[in-house]
Amino acid sequence: MSEPCTNSSQEAIARLREFGYAFNEAGELRKIDAASGKPGDLPYEFKISDNPVTNQEHYEQLANQIPDIVYELLEKNGLKRTYIPIGEPIERSTFVFTQPQPLAQSKKLLVLIHGSGYVLAGQWARRLIINNSLEHGTQLPYIQRAQKLGYDILVTNTNDTTRIINGKRTPIKGLENSMSHAAYVWEHIIMPSQPESVAIVAHSFGGSVCKALAEKFTKFFKEKVFAIALTDGTVGHPPAGCQKYFLDVTCNWVSSTEPLDTDLTHGDKEKNLTCVSAGHPEHEWTSSAAIESVFKFLELKHQKYIKTKQS
């Protein structure tokens, strides 16, 4: 799992400049022009040596600056950190981002769950952030769209599960893996905030996390969670204890060469998860490519949820 960066955003930006890179106004990582000292036109170049190990190490060192830069962007967009486990010293804690902070009786709450690997809070795909743009690789477009539609927001951080304590990598108490992190957030932040309704967008392994949450908190899900949008989510079989409900509220936008929203469901929709094309053949691109369709789905599901509650 990725070790969270401890340097500030400004330090991370300075480190990027030491590597010869900076983000331009469009959020694209570009080589710094020697004459102007500003981002130029050349994109990130992975190969700096004939040694593959050197190239990968350079990439990882540069990529380690991304989390703090994204964290600051989340904060600039109005989100604030909540440290967990609650009551633990910060140096032994991780954090999630919410708006507002603390959450309280949200009319509509949107929960964002990233995939596995090196991505941390606010990121969908590190590769896209580096090679394309912040717009394509971060969760900011989802956050900004949700804000316009009146959602409160919670951004999970399920890969941030360890800290260095006394020189040793140590699991964060009660948050030792993605599943326990998400369950803790659900039990100690989301449920106590008593939201009226909840939607989830989850990418890749975030789908498995979402399934585990539905299995663990089935009653809450059936009462409150009106939509689950997966982007190339890994789910397998729907949860046995709430299969009909899960299939009714969930759609998976999968990587495909077919046009956006082309129905790709396998078999009977009464027994299988609804799958549609994300409009892009590459896994990392599915969240960015499907955003318009995802929010249309969320809003339609919310309208249905409200009508059902009123009837």
From TrEMBL:
GO terms (BP aspect): regulatory ncRNA-mediated heterochromatin formation
One cellular component term from this protein's GO annotations in UniProt: nucleus
Residues annotated as domain Arb2: 15-260
InterPro entries: AB_hydrolase_fold (IPR029058), Arb2 (IPR048263), Arb2_dom (IPR053858)
Top-level division of the source organism's lineage: Eukaryota
Family annotation (Pfam families): Arb2
GO molecular function: siRNA binding
Protein's UniProt name: Arb2 domain-containing protein
Species in which this protein is naturally found: Drosophila mojavensis (Fruit fly)
